[in-house]
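Task: sequence in, structure out. Protein: Acetyltransferase.
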Amino acid sequence: MLEEINDLPRKVVENLDGDQGNIKVYLVQDFNLSLLRRIVNFELDIFNEQGIDEWGLVPQIRHGNVFILKEENKKKIIGIAILMRDWEEFDKAYLFDFAIADEYQGQSLGYHFLHSICINIREQGFNKMDLTVNTENPGAIHLYKDKLGFKTIKMSEDEFGKGHHRYVMELDLVTLKKLN
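Result:
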């Protein structure tokens, strides 16, 4: 059984009200077992066995930044983003994980979700954000490059095994503009 997130300490980062309802971006600052299971199940639905499990998620909530996208007063998670600090460049965040549920894709939610996260990360003192993306994922590449302004800085061959090539992309958060 799923419980509402309202009883947990959290920060509403931004409202994304629109045709889909009262959608909010939450920075997860604490968790209970129910929320942890919902996030892990979302990850499994999107990424199959490559999704993050409880063992990886708990340290990310405690020491990184975990954002979820969901309708206010609803239990279903629509999107997730997990970020961590780069150890070599302290003003750089790394987007470890980003996904929007299949049935919500193509509605600009991914753009608005990630844009609000970028603004929040910049407000936390970060100047750059890096990510990797599958070279055969034109939708994600379009979002990152054409809509948000990420630049491809290199291609990493066989990143997750033979034939799993990734683009390494970077965004200058200082020049990112707020949406009206």
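Residues 5-175 form a domain with the Aminopeptidase fold (CATH 3.40.630.30).
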